[in-house]
Design a protein that fits this description.
The chain is mainly α. The chain has eight helices and four strands, in the order βββαααααβααα. Strands 1-4 form a two-stranded parallel sheet. A two-stranded antiparallel sheet has the order 2-3. β2 and β3 form a beta hairpin.
Length: about 270
């Protein structure tokens, strides 16, 4: 029997401003992610205050990148008539991959400005990103965002609240729950195996995260009700293929950096 979700997406109002469950869960997800990043950063010699500074860069870049790509994909017509619409996040949405690209660019700039090893910075951020995204998708499940196609499977979800973003009264694939679970497994794999992956060179943890993320989202978007744009694939799937290529390139870069470091160490040890 399908699970019924009849929860108001708005948890409460604060001074007349609606506070949504998604926002509350997102704050909790960010807190967990920051704590883990600080813990891993400390292990790698990157202080908690540096991680906190990086969080500000990432938050701004993710918002800008997510909004920009969403508007390009979905609202170019509206933007042509009303250019300020790009600033109205509350009237539209955010693109996950846009936020991811913005985050990666922000980390590149931040690492260079602070003189930090870029690949190590990526590795610190990767497990934190995975668990943060996993928790955040629970907010999507409550609000009906990122819903799946109709299904008759017994674990389908039916939305009954009129303010939910998903269609009402139709059994749907709980793709939000699927993604939360799969990204949770990805986090566990990265966290438990981060030292072993680290032996492959700095950047390997981040590469594994990006590759796992691309695989998860590529598969799940077959269950999302969105139009195909090329070769029967949806926009997010095509972007996922690009992320997978980036992950492979990052693996190669990590391996080369490790081999170069080993070579330098051997030369330095020679009499």
């Amino acid at each position: 029997m399908p699970f019924v979700i009849d929860i108001d997406p708005v948890a409460f109002n604060l001074l007349g401003i609606p506070v949504r469950w998604y926002g509350l869960i997102l704050v909790g997800a960010a807190a967990v992610a920051i704590w883990l990043a600080q813990r891993e950063g400390r292990r790698r010699g990157i202080g908690p205050h540096v991680v906190s500074d990086a969080v500000v860069w990432v938050a701004v870049a993710a918002l800008v990148g997510g909004r920009l790509l969403y508007v390009i994909q979905n609202e170019l017509g509206t933007l042509a008539e009303h250019p300020t619409h790009i600033l109205m996040v509350w009237m539209g949405g955010l693109s996950f991959y846009g936020g991811l690209i913005g985050t990666l660019l922000a980390l590149v700039v931040f690492a260079r400005r602070r003189g930090l090893p870029l690949l190590a910075v990526f590795d610190v951020a990767a497990p934190a990103a995975a668990i943060g995204q996993a928790i955040g998708h629970l907010g999507c499940l409550i609000g009906g965002d990122s819903y799946g196609v109709a299904t008759d499977l017994p674990w389908a979800v039916i939305y009954r609240n009129a303010d939910a973003m998903a269609p009402q009264g139709i059994p749907l694939h709980p793709t939000q729950a699927y993604e939360a679970i799969l990204l949770g497994f990805l986090f566990v794999g990265l966290w438990v195996g981060r030292r072993r992956l680290g032996r492959l060179g700095d950047g390997s943890v981040a590469a594994a995260y990006l590759l796992g993320l691309a695989v998860v989202r590529f598969g799940l978007f077959f269950l999302r009700d969105e139009p195909a744009v090329l070769f029967g694939l949806k926009t997010a799937q095509l972007l996922g293929l690009g992320i997978a290529v980036l992950a492979i390139g990052l693996f190669v870069a990590a391996r080369r950096a490790r081999d170069s470091s080993i070579s330098l160490s051997l030369e330095a040890s020679r009499p």
